[in-house]
Amino acid sequence: MNFENLAGVRIVVTGGAGFLGRFVVQELEASGARVFAARARDFDLRERSSCRRLLEVERPELLIHLAAVVGGIGANRANPGRYLYENAIMGLEIIEAARLAAIPKTVVVGTICAYPKFTPVPFREDDLWNGYPEETNAPYGLAKKLMLAQLQAYRQQYGLNGIYLLPVNLYGPADNFDLESSHVIPAMIRKFDAAVRNGHSEVTLWGTGAASREFLYVEDCARAIVAAAQLYDGSEPVNLGSGREISIRELADLIAGLCGFQGRIVWNAALPDGQPRRCLDVSRAQERFGFTASVPLQAGLAQTIAWWRQQPHDVAAG
After folding, report:
1. Is 140 in the active site?
2. Do 140 and 228 fall within a single domain?
3. By residue range, what is the domain housing residue 125?
4. 140, 164, 171, 217: which one is catalytic?
């Protein structure tokens, strides 16, 4: 079922108050949709009764499941059991609730961490099951990949119309800048900005800098999710990304320059790099629902740094 015109369509977005969720909600509301952003404090998606209550009360025509327990490499290493259980149980329960409530369409957002550790570059959706994910985030990646299997099984047995999207690493304003749980871009921005504020001449970063990543600006991702919700009904997973790869070392140099940091960058090789490379084949998204990323990395980083510098925070925080 397609929703080319979202005006008046009732939509529930789980995780709608989160980093990605708030931009998805804004995009939907701009299209005239009637959106309910489900918050964890009101609906505990780990509980079956809560999932069923959410859908019975709101009665959406479209469900977008974004809610997740997520963090960077350090957070994944510290919470493998929690990240596996909570993400898996939320997915299982909300998709089952969508089936029982006969929701016309369900959109589930997975993770790039679901891909095998040594996936050939660029990552193609057909390679998703050809190996085990990178160890530091495998429990999280497997929990999220389970939702793809569930959607496909439910489509086959029950006729559930559910689609599965695989966004690459996201970044942008209002990201998580907590150094204990943040991803690479906000962590670097915070460290370089603190060094500039405090006059420090050295910044230490995780790993060797040799790994590569691809990044997608959060507003681009929100636009892609809404386009898929409107136009895509297939059972195959779809990558969401920019299709452009950059090494972590190059990324650090770029962010340092944008922050005005001119000191020395020290790489702590005792800490993990994570997956060696990440770069997506984004042709399926273009072909199936016309999505192409529009925000260049440097422009997106500049906007993210500007947002961070407008926030109140301790000048000593690193």
Report:
1. yes
2. yes
3. 10-171+215-240
4. 140
